[in-house]
């Protein structure tokens, strides 16, 4: 399948095969899609989707509207009527069939709600196709160790660009603060106004971490060994994410799974752990869209000549005038330009 076709497959929200209004009497052989239970896709594995039905999720049908009693996980497959619509972690879906979640049962996903946001996976040398990985995320948590492994600002920049491009708010999570000071890194990201939290495993998690995560869908991204699993286990004590398993000969680690998993937080909201995702392909990022994430720069850029990319090499970029006139902070413009440049680096840099 060409990448063009695949883009169509993942982006097409028009062809959901939304169920038509019922025009004939319903029979057992012809289930009606309005008789469905709402759920969230929390993980997928070879064509099987684990969906979480919340306590109080509404099931509508001929018998009226009923609220479910307790949260449960329901295994489901895609209904054939979904056609080419993709289903990814974070999708809000409607289920029919056996939605009891009992062992051995399999429900069907008949509808996928339009996605508010889509984060896409790295397009790298091994996998040139960008695939959507998480739907409806509000926040991208860029987990970076302050030491062991050392921080890689260029990688952070790439993640920031991916977040701004997807309209997902970034949060810098600096771990292992017992090993090194966060000050230098915080200085680098302060001009961009990126929110940050600092953690260390030998101290209680600060309230700020929970505050930033509560009630939102946060996707964790970070290289192996930065302390993601440690963080998830602290936030969700019964998550039991494998920690500290140093890579085997394949370099991938014994417990490394490539599937994103969405976990409910005990204080509300969700964490999406993405073990296989380390960075993002940025080839698709449009510089004119990126500046939209920085309102003050965007306002000034209206004075730029048509087609200005706002890079350092642009001779008449209004951002330079604004800095010279003291209307914009030079460090902020410089940081924004560094982000622009990071689009041209390889995904693994
Ligand atoms: N010194 C120090 N070590 C930490 C901290 N947090 C985690 N570690 C250690 O760092 C190692 C890696 O932590 P993990 O939580 O497994 O890291 P991960 O990002 O989940 O790594 P993968 O599972 O490979 O993706 C483990 O040995 C942890 O004990 C911290 O705050 N300080
Ligand atoms: Zn410009």
TrEMBL record:
Keyword list (alphabetical) reads: Cytoplasm, GTP-binding, Hydrolase, Metal-binding, Nucleotide-binding, Ribosome biogenesis, RNA-binding, rRNA-binding, Zinc
Could you tell me where this protein is found in the cell?
Cytoplasm
Q: What's the top EC group for this one?
A: hydrolase
Q: Which SUPFAM superfamilies match?
A: P-loop containing nucleoside triphosphate hydrolases
Question: Where does the EngC GTPase domain start and stop, copy by copy?
Answer: 135-278
Please list the residue ranges that the record marks as compositionally biased, kind Basic residues: 19-29
Q: Where is this region: Disordered?
A: 1-32
* Coiled-coil portions: none
Query: Where, by residue number, does the polypeptide cross the bilayer?
Result: none
Cellular compartments per GO CC = cytoplasm
Compositional bias, Basic and acidic residues, is annotated for 1-16
Q: Which residues bind GTP?
A: 175-178, 222-230
State its Enzyme Commission number(s): 3.6.1.-
So what family is this one in? Belongs to the TRAFAC class YlqF/YawG GTPase family. RsgA subfamily.
Physiological role? One of several proteins that assist in the late maturation steps of the functional core of the 30S ribosomal subunit. Helps release RbfA from mature subunits. May play a role in the assembly of ribosomal proteins into the subunit. Circularly permuted GTPase that catalyzes slow GTP hydrolysis, GTPase activity is stimulated by the 30S ribosomal subunit.
HAMAP family the UniProt entry points to: GTPase_RsgA
Q: What is this protein called?
A: Small ribosomal subunit biogenesis GTPase RsgA
Source species of the chain: Actinopolymorpha rutila
Lineage at the top is: Bacteria, Bacillati, Actinomycetota, Actinomycetes, Propionibacteriales
* Primary gene name: rsgA
